[in-house]
């Protein structure tokens, strides 16, 4: 009887060891699933913070404009920021907006002050080397605003004139290339904000205010006119930091979903941009 008991005991021990081995294998097989469910670090940082930070325009009517009466910043791109906050934090009001001009958009991302820039930021090959961009959500062309009294009908009439542009914008390059093609010479003065360019036009320091047409329409008044020519189509994209790849994908997917659903078109119509 003793040898039989010993055999049974050995079999039991082997069966127990095999069961433990199978359990161990089962545990390791579930690990990849857990990894798949893990929230990417760049998105987790936003969730942990509880607020989505965006760099936006505060001086461009219809896109991002701070109402002097209420202090609220409103516009098409502000609504896009809210849609992204809703996607990430389930609350469109959990946003922190930082006003930006053309010159400061990049540094805000570089320094980590904002998660995304939605600020009439034109997508260029050069800028793609520094930042990730979403697919375009709006396309426009560079235009020219002049005083009605100038009598100018097109770029040719601005030969020898001074054109005001914003610092670090793509407008200067677009107009210079067009001027070269038409065989005329123009000069430029750069300003920190669009409002400063408009003030320079009103005071006669420059003969023309040049930027994307949709932006110019926000500064149109009874004394000015926007000429019909358009130069170098400008595609606006949402910009994120190069290292924030998961956030880039989420932003792009969300904006593309809004295009397909018609939500982007509704917002464009809401702000008179369609």
Automatic annotation (TrEMBL):
Residues 51-274 form the Solute-binding protein family 3/N-terminal domain. One of its GO terms (cellular component) is extracellular region. GO terms for molecular function: ligand-gated monoatomic ion channel activity. GO terms for biological process: amino acid transport. It comes from the Bacteria. Residues 57-274 form the Ionotropic glutamate receptor C-terminal domain. Keywords: Signal, Transport. Residues 1-23 form the signal peptide. Pfam families: SBP_bac_3. PROSITE patterns: PROKAR_LIPOPROTEIN, SBP_BACTERIAL_3. Belongs to the bacterial solute-binding protein 3 family. This is Major cell-binding factor.
